[in-house]
Amino acid sequence: MKIEVFGSGCSTCKKLFELTKKAVTELNLNVDVIYLTNIQKMLELGILSSPVLAINGKPVITGFPPSIKKIKEVIKENL
């Protein structure tokens, strides 16, 4: 499983990154969460706004950091 958070470096993007790392830890998954600010990669994936949580290269949450509960649900759905 590949989990990436794409963002511009703003506080909202960093919050999604931190919440996602916490969710992965709480789910006891041995997965690295990567934070990317590469605009070119975002455009290649069709991402036009940030932050974005992508699992296995597929954007699953866009535009806002949801609750940690929601993040865990999305991760479990994509296991």
Brief account:
With 79 residues, this protein is of the alpha+beta class. It has helices at 11-26, 39-44, 68-77; strands spanning 3-6, 33-36, 52-55, 58-62. A hairpin with a 2-residue loop joins strand 3 and strand 4 (58-62).
What does this structure look like?
The chain is built from 3 helices and 4 strands. The protein has 79 residues and is an alpha+beta fold. It has one domain (3-78): Glutaredoxin (3-Layer(aba) Sandwich). Strands 2-1-3-4 form a 4-stranded mixed sheet, with helices on one face. Strand 3 (52-55) and strand 4 (58-62) form a beta hairpin. Helix 1 (11-26) crosses helix 3. The longest helix has 16 residues, at 11-26. It is globular, with a radius of gyration of 11 Å. The model has no long low-confidence stretch (mean pLDDT 93).
C-alpha termini separation: 7 Å
Number of E strands: 4
What string, H for helix and E for strand, traces the elements in order? EHEHEEH
Spans with pLDDT under 50 lasting ≥5 residues? none
Radius of gyration: 11 Å
Approximate helicity band: 40-55%
- CATH homologous superfamily assignment: Glutaredoxin
Shape annotation: globular
Query: What's the CATH topology label?
Result: Glutaredoxin
Which CATH class? Alpha Beta
Domain Thioredoxin-like fold: 1-76
Organism: Candidatus Berkelbacteria bacterium CG08_land_8_20_14_0_20_39_8
Protein name: Thioredoxin family protein
Annotation keywords:
single chain, 79 residues, alpha+beta, Glutaredoxin, four-stranded mixed beta sheet, 3 helices, 4 strands
Note the topology.
Elements (H helix, E strand, L loop, with lengths): L2 E4 L4 H16 L6 E4 L2 H6 L7 E4 L2 E5 L5 H10 L2
Helix pairs in contact: 1-3
InterPro entries: Thioredoxin-like_fold (IPR012336), Thioredoxin-like_sf (IPR036249), THIRX-like_proc (IPR005243)
Pfam families: Thioredoxin_3
Protein name: Thioredoxin family protein
